[in-house]
Amino acid sequence: MTYIDDVLAGRRAPGAFPVPAGAPVSADQAVAAGWLVAVLDGRAITTAAELLAACGGALEFPDWYGHNFDALADCLGDLSWLPAPGYLLLWRHAEVLAGCEPESFATAYRVLAAASADRLAGGVAPLVSVLVGAAAP
C-alpha cells in the first residue's frame, strides 16, 4: 500500500488517506517498522457512536475517554498508553458510515487528519489513517 510505504520512506507526510474499495491495502510495512496497527471493521459502523466505540476499543483508549469527537481527538493526540514508533488506523469499509451518516463521516475524517497533522507538528510518533472504500468528504 503506497500511503504507508511513502510515509515510512519520508516521501509523504502522515495523514488521513481515503482509498477506493478493492484497492490492495496492506499493513505489512507498518508492522515491519514496529508500528501499532489498529483495524476497524466498518461493516459494523453505521453511526458516530459505533465509530467512537470502535476506535476506543481498537486503540485501547483509557477509561476517561468521553466517546465524542473531541475526546477522540484528545486520545489520538496522546496515545501514551500504547507506546509505538508510529500508528496505523486501518478503517475498512469506511463507505458504510459515509453512506449512513455523511456528516459524522466528514467529522471523523477531519479529526483523523487533524490528529495526524498535530502529531507531526508536535514531533511525536506519526499517525496514519487509511479509510478504505470512502472518498474524502
Can you give a write-up of this model?
The protein has helices at residues 2-8, 28-32, 48-58, 69-78, 95-100, 102-122, and strands at 16-19, 36-41, 87-92, 127-132. The model has no long low-confidence stretch (mean pLDDT 94). Helix 4 (69-78) runs parallel beside helix 6. The chain has 137 residues and is of the alpha/beta class. Helix content is 44%, strand content 16%. The longest helix has 21 residues, at 102-122.
Q: What is the name of the CATH topology?
A: Barnase, Chain D
CATH class: Alpha Beta
Q: Supply the number of structural domains.
A: 1
Cα-atom radius of gyration: 14 Å
Fraction in beta strands: 15-25%
Largest sheet: 4 strands, parallel
Strand order of the largest sheet: 1-4-3-2
Shape: globular
Number of helical segments?
A: 6
Q: List low-pLDDT spans.
A: none
CATH architecture field: 2-Layer Sandwich
What's the CATH H-level homologous superfamily? Barstar-like
Assembly type: single chain
